[in-house]
Design goal:
The chain is of the alpha+beta class. It contains 11 helices and 13 strands.
Length: 397
């Protein structure tokens, strides 16, 4: 056995030890790919694990299959090279231009991927973003891609640790597994069928002879997306505190977190006639944080501010540095009455204004944000007056 063969066998053994291949896609990795697609504005993003003769998608956005052969895998090259790979236009690339997924569906043009290298030095696969349009990324986005890849490796490590705990008969690991089974069941029984319906609706929307029915298709798509978001929201907000995922901290710029949350809430703000602005810090505020958890928490605060701000109002998201870095979300909305402030972080709490005006939501946003902040050694505070509210999420740097 050659040294190369021995190294590859060790890599494959390490890959299989994570217990992800041929199983349900972990929700944390799907969340990470959705964040990647949002940051890079690409329709496709994936966490691809490179097996002996296939590429398995352990997480994906816009990925319709569970696996593909290695002979059309860009991520296999990223994994083998153990460094970031960026292909601005695959159709003119000397190696990739003949790939079937370049010459035919889905017509890959732009690819950017960073390798997933675990703590033992094994290259497991890659986190990538893909588009059917040519493109490129700058130094800041390259750094963001490496950060997301490090987050993916951290989540895989947490999954493997849970398997080890389960083997030891740890009750917490069994509770976590039951939670993951519930999430997988809900995802399969509700989210997956709705996502399939969304896909068919997109196909119908492209049919010219059905153009007269576009006005009927669009509201169905909107409500399907709303249903998927609501299920994810409920699953996050009702998860018991003692089985919350520990944050996997890597170096993250808070400005990147704010930008991702701002992008995610932009459509809602525009729809409601609210001016949403993100104010970056002058020099950036680096923190050690779980980018997925933290971005989701900030997104909840921004969405909450937009929903409680009347049309014509303003919501501003800003970053402060110092010993306790923080994100502040200030709005010019209706404010929170003093007698309701002690209860706003309770699960499913909806104040008088929310009930009377039928504000969308189930009363979990602030609870989710505070839980994420606490997991990072910080908290969320709320101050309010008759002219607006300011939410401040602080973490330990």
């Amino acid at each position: 056995m050659t040294a190369h063969t021995h190294d590859e066998e060790a890599r494959l053994a390490a890959l299989h030890s994570y217990g992800v291949l041929d199983g349900p896609r972990p929700r944390a990795l799907d969340d990470l790919t959705r964040l990647a697609s949002s940051i890079f504005d690409t329709p496709v993003s994936a966490v691809a694990l490179i097996d002996r003769d296939r590429q398995w998608f352990a997480g994906g956005t816009g990925v319709p299959v569970a696996e593909t052969p290695l002979d059309i895998s860009f991520c296999a090259h990223t994994t083998a090279g153990r460094r970031q790979l960026v292909v601005p236009d695959a159709s003119v690339h000397p190696h990739f231009h003949t790939y079937s997924n370049v010459t035919g569906e889905p017509h890959v043009r732009f690819y950017a991927g960073s390798p997933l290298v675990d703590e033992d030095g094994h290259a497991l696969g890659a986190l990538c973003v893909v588009d059917d349009r040519p493109g490129d990324i700058g130094p800041r986005q390259r750094e963001a891609l490496d950060t997301l890849a490090a987050q993916a490796v951290g989540h895989l490590s947490l999954l493997r640790n849970r398997i080890l705990l389960a083997d030891l008969g740890d009750e917490l690991a069994r509770a976590t597994q039951r939670e993951e089974d519930l999430i997988a069941t809900v995802s399969h029984e509700l989210r997956t069928p709705v996502a399939a319906i969304q896909g068919y609706l997109e196909l119908l929307a492209d049919e010219e002879e059905l153009a007269a029915y576009t006005r009927l298709v669009e509201p169905i798509q909107r409500n399907g997306e709303r249903l998927i978001r609501m299920v994810d929201h409920l699953l996050t907000g009702t998860r018991p505190a003692n089985v919350l995922s520990d944050p996997h901290r890597t170096q993250v710029d808070l400005d990147m977190v704010v930008e991702a949350a701002w992008r995610a809430c932009g459509a809602l703000a525009e729809q409601r006639g609210v001016a949403l602005a993100a104010v970056p810090s002058p020099e950036g505020v680096p923190v050690r944080a779980d980018i997925t958890q933290l971005t989701h928490a900030v997104q909840q605060l921004v969405r909450n501010a937009v929903l409680f701000t009347p049309a014509g109002g303003d919501v501003t998201v800003s970053v402060t540095g110092g010993p306790a870095p923080a994100v502040e979300v200030a709005d010019t909305g209706v404010g929170v009455p003093a007698d309701e402030l002690p209860y706003v972080f309770q699960r499913f709490y909806r104040g008088r204004h929310a009930r009377q005006e039928a504000v969308p939501g189930v009363g979990l946003g602030l609870h989710i944000a505070r839980q994420a902040a606490i997991a990072h050694g910080g908290t969320v505070t709320l101050t309010s007056s008759g002219k607006g509210t300011t939410a401040r999420l602080s973490i330990t740097g």
